[in-house]
Design goal:
Distance between the termini: 31 Å
Shape: globular
Structural class: mainly beta
Radius of gyration: 16 Å
CATH architecture: Roll
Largest sheet: 7 strands, antiparallel
Helix content: 10-25%
Strand content: 35-45%
CATH topology: Pnp Oxidase, Chain A
Order of helices and strands: EEEEEHEHHEEEEEEEE
Number of strands: 14
Number of domains: 1
CATH class: Mainly Beta
CATH superfamily: Electron Transport, Fmn-binding Protein, Chain A
Length: 174
């Protein structure tokens, strides 16, 4: 029997890849947040969307500097994923709190996070009002991956990428 769902409809589309979204302010101060709402929308040219609450500090920074990075972690970074998902960069240095190291990107000033296994550096192409969120369309300027975990165009079983199931539930890609 089918049951109608009236709230949290998006959970029907989970699990989703959990990633660390980095941005930077106009003065060069970096920020990071945990996110799970991203998807590719075009292969040629490569464009991705990330959806971020209008209230988040990250939203302000992406709108300000027009760039962001999708950092793909493994389950080894789970403590950092929780820290970066439960505090705001407005008043907390989440990099220090989560013990995350910054590395420079190839094409953007927003930082990459050391020990992630994939990176997608983006320049903001378009922001679309999407209810309580903005859908940020990013033109992919650079994408890189740790080839120990990504072979023949797909993640290997040993990548152990966290997937957001719902609420505070995380499962792992195996």
């Amino acid at each position: 029997m089918l049951k109608e769902i009236k709230s949290e409809i998006y959970h029907l589309l989970h699990p989703k890849l959990t990633f660390l979204l980095t941005s930077i302010d106009k003065n060069g101060k970096p920020n990071v947040m945990t996110c799970a709402w991203a998807t590719p929308v075009s292969d040629e040219p490569p464009i991705v969307i990330v959806c971020v609450s209008k209230e988040h500090h990250t939203t302000k920074l992406i709108r300000q500097t027009k760039e962001f990075v999708i950092n793909i972690p493994t389950k080894k970074l789970l403590p950092a994923i929780w820290i970066c998902g439960k505090s705001s960069g407005r008043d907390t240095d989440k990099f220090t709190k989560a013990k995350l190291e910054i590395i420079n990107g190839k094409k953007v000033k927003a930082p990459l996070i050391k020990n992630c296994i994939g990176y997608i550096e983006c320049r903001l192409w378009k922001a679309v009002d999407a209810g309580e969120c903005y859908a940020f369309f990013g033109k992919v300027l650079s994408a890189s991956v740790d080839d120990r975990y990504f072979k023949k165009g797909q993640w290997t079983e040993k990548s152990e990428i966290p997937l957001h199931l719902a609420g505070s539930k995380i499962v792992y890609f195996k």
